[in-house]
Amino acid sequence: MTQPKSGDTFGVVGLFESADALMAAISKVREAGLGKVEAYTPYPVHGLDKALGQRRSPLGGMVMIMGVLGALTAFLFQWWISGIDYPIVTGGKAPTSWQAFVPIMFEVTVLFATFTAGLGMLFFLNKLPFFGHPVLHAKAISAITRDRFGLAIEAEGDAFDVAAAVRALESAGARPIEVISVPSFSGPMTARYLERSLLGIAIACAVSGYATYWAVKLFPVLPPTSHMLVQPRLDPQKPSAFFKDGHGMQLPVPGTVARGYLPLGVTSQEEAATLVNPLAVTQKVLEEGRQAYMNHCVVCHGPLANGVPTLTSAYGAKPANLQAQQFREYPDGKIYWAIVMGKNAMPSYAADLSEDDRWAVIHYLRALQRAQNAKPGDLAGVKFEAGSGQGSEGKAP
Amino acid sequence: MTGSKTSTGQVLWGAAALGLMGVVAAYPVAGPARFWANWLLWFLFLLTIAMGSLFIVALEHLVGSRWSVPLRRIPERLSTLLLPAVPMALVALGALPVLYPGTRPEAAHDPVLAGKAFWLSTPFVSTRVVLCLALWLVGVAVLTGGSLRQDRTRDPGFNVKARRFAPAFLAIFALTLTLVAFDWISALEPKWYSDIFGVYLFAGTFLAALAATAASVVYLKDRGRLEGVRPAHLYNLGAYLFAFTVFWSYIAFAQYLLMWYGDMPEEVFWYKERLAGPWLGVALLLGVVHFLIPFFALIPRDAKEDTRRLFWVAVLMLVAHVLDLYWLIFPVLGPPRLFWPELSFALFFISGGLLWVRAAMERGEDMPAGDPFLREGLEFRL
Amino acid sequence: MIEAYVTREELRRLLSALLVVIIFICLVALFAFLIIPGTRNANAPIAVPAVNPPQGQTGWLDVTEYPPEAGYTVPPVDPKTVMTPTPALLARGKVLFEQNCVACHGPEGHGDGPAAKGLNPPPRNFSQPTGWINGYQIEGIWKTLQEGVKGSAMVEYDYLSTKDRMALVHYVQSLGDFSHGPEDPAKLAALAKLFASAGQVVPPKIPVSMAMAKLEEEYVAPAPLWNLAGAPALARRSILDPARAARTLAGLSGWRTDERSMARELVRGAPANGFSPAVATYTPEQWRDLHSQLEGIASP
After folding, report:
1. What's the pLDDT band for B314 if we cut at 50, 70, 90?
2. Cβ separation of A80 and C29 shorter than 8 Å?
3. Could you tell me what percent of chain A has a pLDDT over 90?
4. Which of A61, A318, B346, C7 gets the highest tally of CB atoms within 10 A of its CB?
């Protein structure tokens, strides 16, 4: 596409009072066949594109295709991440739960569609960046951007004739009529001006970036703000002038025990076996035990205490199956010892579980063991749902 | 012309009579529970169309929209469906002891239901129903009756009065439609909790009324009435329909997603009932006819001005609304049932409703001729 | 039809733009999902097994609320099918080994699994004939699986079925490249007889909430200490929480006859057991007094 030279006639524009007058004039002017007919209006007028004989906009189709692509992209990304690459069970849902994907799919669909609509319209259909449209240099533009409707016959091919175009617009009822010539592109909004501005911005960014980098590097002692982490507080392993020996960390005062840190009265798991669980078996205690179990134990020992963890088994250790005969016969005190002191790969949970929580967890563990190894009498009065429970004989053990 | 008109009327009367026999037979043969479930479905179908139409009219008065003035007479006429809905509602009170667990004596021993016992008790529900009916009749009398009177009096004072009345009525509408959702549908399973359920029913109501309006407008326009209604008006109706299709889907999915994710026993059981076995098929079908088909059918710009397409999409939306109510109500009876009782109810109420609407379409002039904004509405352009 | 919207040239430009977008998305996906995670897991030692979401059987809710299940008996195993390694048994053994043993014994059975580092004594190295506590013959490995090894981290695996345990036995033997014989025919025969004699009993299962209710129902609360207010000062001073103290005493067998063991146990459990931590400082005389006072107020 060759750029028109400065000074050539661009076209003839006439103004109309209303959208209806404009619409009525378009068909007459188009019949004359003098050049490309184009309308300039202060607001979008519906039906104008049809009247001007413009082809139907491809924007809808573009938006549709990109919207579908967005939905597919979002679905496949989530499906891959949640279902295949890093499957984590959240809230007891299967890793590939389509329901959870829908809001993201919706958002990405909208994102792709709006970007396509906006950018496709500006850059593809309106062919931006295009600086200094000749009509912007006409006198008529001040009226067009307020309340008048402009209709232009633009030079295209050899058939264009200025006098004939003026006559055609006049007979269609346009007042006033103006002949527009292609302006010299010396205004501020030229491509070169924009290029220079962008270059200036790039240089400013680079300079300020390097300046900041070196300033921080050379003067690191100047804190930009005072953060909350700067406090007159004694951190672990730090010296302190307050104590005589200069250490921040001190041994407890002889003969005292910190609150909540009473030492354990037993020295081995065998000794601990005789400890008595001081809590009564009540619904409240069992619920507390369940809560503590769900917070601390379930990730490794599993919700049924059978060593099938809720975290992935890429974990390294093999958590104990607490349903085994051995652990069912363990006295409470031995389990208590394992909670306090840890066992094999299991760390101590003394800091996480209070004294009462530990004993409550043990009661709850007994309930879990009973649930998986119930007594035959426990099933008295239980109604089996059809197709469950009773069919166990068929299962492979 | 007149000949074919009479014959259409005769066919409708015949269908209604045939359906009535099935309806009467359904009570002793198919059992009261099934009879009442069917009755409830069709009562709510006609009621929601009437209520939604009234909402469209009141909304237009409230915001002072001009484009819809030439079309306003259609929802006004549709809102007269409320008159047959009044006896239907009173009859439907008979369903209370059959379908609603909250009214049974055992409810007093259930710790959950005992707390709601008074709210769910037959006298209080009946009081609320009668009160709602009275309020809606006032709405019909003021908005529809006033507009029909304006045809004769040409008194612009009606517009002022209607604009003052509309906000009050919309507040009442919001409350009473929520009561409809909770009293008639949600109370079928009174242990279920969903705060958004009123909005869900509102979305379906508004959509059904819009669909009925669009279908009637196209129907009348095809018969040479409603002269002056342009494609731009139809475009707006189509856009409305499109937008509220998405709104309904949004609300429906939002309710489902939150309950699915939250996994609370008092919420999830409702969906487990409605997504298990054959009901899953009904739910999927609902998603297709209530969202997918209308969404893609109405997406192109030209589709919203295409009278054929608009008409069939509107009819499909009405079918989808019936299916929606079916999916909400019938799972309390067990697996989906569709046999002669359902078909006779459908036959009776569809042909009866069409007879009523046909008669209503002759009331007053086709456009609110006395409305001072009618000319402006006819000049409407996009 | 499409010519109504775009010219051929524009269509080409549009399609190439679409191609650029799709290639960009694919590149992002390639880097984000394959290349970057690939570098992250380059030296991962153990293959990640598939995750089974712990969904409940009755709903989407609570895993512990499965429906009750009646107990049953697994029919006795035919010894002929398990006494000698078959490919099917070895394959089953490999699966079980990877689920249960790899963490400590390592993927090759060298006793070098990731969890082995903190264990004392260390896990057995299956590739060497030395150090097997119960011997490396079939009945020895069976015994280890059945009873565990006391004083080590090896626990019982009696919850695996007979056939599964025998599969593990054969698989463990296959990991050592040395002669595992000779077997003791008498012991083998005893084992075979054991397999053929009785099936394994699988107990019934009840939901955990039901088990909790059962435990609460079966729990017999000990009678409270009577007349604590009228007890001597030493007893009153020693008991912080009468309810707990009552439960502790009810749980201590033989405290009435053995004053010294009572003292030891009370000191060990204080203060959670309801007794004051100060009991740790009591003299033998004070213990004697306390013992007689507790006998007075504790219900028999």
Report:
1. very high
2. yes
3. 28
4. A318
Number of neighbours of residue A37 by Cβ within 10 angstroms: 25
Shortest Cα–Cα distance, A103 to chain C (Å): 20
What digits encode the pLDDT tens for the residues B127-156? 999 999 999 999 999 999 999 999 899 889
CB contact residues (below 8 A), chain C span 17-76, against chain A: 17-18, 21-22, 25, 29, 33, 37, 44, 46, 48-51, 53-57, 60-61, 63-64, 67-72, 74
Sort out which chain B residues have CB atoms less than 8 A from C59's CB and list them: 265, 268, 272
**Consecutive H or E run containing B286:** helix B278-287
Question: B308 CB near a chain A CB, below 8 Å?
Answer: no
- DSSP category for residue C219: -
- C170 is a domain residue: yes
**Owning domain of residue C7:** 2-40
Domains of chain A, residue spans = 1-193, 269-373
Residue C210 lies in a domain: no
Residue carrying the six token digits 């975290």 = A311
Regarding pTM above 0.95, the answer is no
The candidate with the shortest Cα–Cα distance to C298, out of C264, C260, C251, is: C251
Residue B106, chain C, CB below 8 Å: the answer is no
Same domain, yes or no: C181 and C290: no
Q: Supply the mean pLDDT for chain C.
A: 81
Q: Are A30 and A53 in contact (CB under 8 A)?
A: yes
Predicted local confidence at residue B110, as pLDDT? 84
Distance CA A323, CA A306 (A): 6
Complex ipTM value: 0.83
Identity of the amino acid at A50: K
Please report whether residue C7 resides in a domain: yes
Burial of B282 (0-12, 13-18, 19+ CB in 10 A): buried
Return the partners of chain C (3 or more C-beta pairs < 8 Å). A, B
Same domain, C85 and C142: yes
Question: Would you call C37 and A371 a contact, using CB atoms and an 8 Å cutoff?
Answer: no
Give CA–CA dist C238/C290, Å, rounded.
Answer: 8
Phi and psi torsions of A255, nearest 5°? 80, 5
A159: Cβ contacts below 8 Å, ≥ 6 apart: A33, A34, A35
pLDDT in tens, C194-204: 887 777 788 88
Whether residue C88 sits in one domain with residue C34: no
A46/B382 CB distance under 8 A: yes
- C291 lies in a domain? yes
When divided into structural domains, chain C yields a total of: 3
Superfamily designation of domain A269-373: Cytochrome c-like domain (1.10.760.10)
The CATH number of residue C81's host domain is: 1.10.760.10
> What three-state secondary structure class fits A222?
coil
| pLDDT (0 to 100) of residue C45 | 52
CB contact under 8 A, A69 and C21: yes
If asked whether residues C192 and C276 sit together in one domain, one would say: no
Q: Which two tokens stand for residue B102?
A: 């909250």
Mean pLDDT of C12-34: 87
> Is there a contact between A286 and C216 if contact means CB atoms under 8 Å apart?
yes
C168 and C99 in one domain? yes
* A359 contacts in chain C (CB < 8 Å): 272
The top-scoring range by mean pLDDT among A227-236, A317-326, B217-226 is: B217-226
Q: To which residue do tokens 């869900």 refer?
A: B200
| Inter-residue contact B38 to B345 (CB < 8 Å) | yes
Alpha carbons within 13 A on the beta-carbon side of C170:
20
pLDDT at B1: 40
A27 to chain C, minimum CA–CA distance in Å? 20
Average pLDDT over residues A82-87: 81
